[in-house]
Design a protein that fits this description.
five-stranded mixed beta barrel, 4 helices, two-stranded antiparallel sheet, about 240 residues, flat, alpha+beta
Length: about 240
């Protein structure tokens, strides 16, 4: 499997070029070792975007066997081993363990929770996922205790050795056809992408300006209604006094 090389001269393109990348808006097929080798660039803080060579990567897909599985009150954390020379933790949130009126009953019959919540707020089925299960995981890239980890978005059990072999073939093809060489954007394509981004930004600015103007109009109408109510109350009081 290719690993990023520090000897290659790389061009890092602006974020407006990312939609044209073969790795950005897709599940990039990586190994655990690949994920740990991803680099972070200044200027992309908070965007959870990492780089393999100069390929921008935000979402990843890995295949491996679960070699450790820890279940906590509000999350699952399991360790994936894909024989790449490194393992990686996968994290998934879950609803807190329900509290019962009987502690003894809870200890003898612990509630089985199989529905988790992804980092983007979607529900995910974790039933059947346990130690020794061979799985395909998809998610974003998190960072905890100086180590990268996967924030789970999707998971599926690999049902057979044939399916597992197919997943490894897909990984090898992706690494060979996409990740083996730096990403190249031609100057004409970069100019087109920039123009598209500028057009999008202008449309967003116009939309925000329209929404702001609508908000002002609504506020002015509310004030007029309030003034009208006050005048009517004052007129009613004047009639009563008269």
């Amino acid at each position: 499997m290719p690993e990023p090389s520090s000897t290659i001269s790389l061009t890092f393109y602006p974020a407006y070029c990312f939609p044209a990348s073969p790795t950005f808006n897709t599940w990039s097929k990586l190994t655990a070792a690949n994920v740990h080798a991803l680099t972070h660039r200044k200027g992309f803080e908070g965007q959870k975007t990492y780089f393999f060579l100069n390929h921008p990567i935000k979402w990843v897909r890995l295949v491996g066997v679960i070699v450790a599985f820890d279940e906590y009150a509000e999350r699952w954390i399991f360790t994936l081993d894909d024989s790449s020379g490194a393992t990686i933790q996968v994290v998934c949130s879950r609803d807190p363990t329900p509290i019962t009126s009987s502690k003894m009953a809870l200890e003898k019959n612990p509630p089985k929770i199989s529905t988790g919540k992804t980092a983007t707020g979607n529900t995910i089925d974790m039933s059947g996922i346990d130690l020794g299960t061979v799985v395909k995981v998809k998610g974003g890239i998190g960072f905890y205790a100086q180590q990268k980890q996967i924030t789970l978005e999707r998971i599926s059990i690999i049902p057979s050795t044939t399916s597992e072999a197919q997943a490894w073939t897909e990984l090898a093809d992706f690494q060979t056809s996409v990740l083996s060489e730096p990403w190249l954007v031609l100057p004409a394509d970069e100019a087109k992408l920039r123009a598209e981004a500028d057009g999008t930004n202008r449309r967003l600015r116009r939309r925000k300006e329209k929404e702001k103007e609508k908000g002002k109009i609504k506020e002015q109408e509310a004030r007029r209604r309030q003034r009208g109510k006050r005048r009517r109350r004052e007129e009613e009081k004047g009639i009563e006094k008269g």
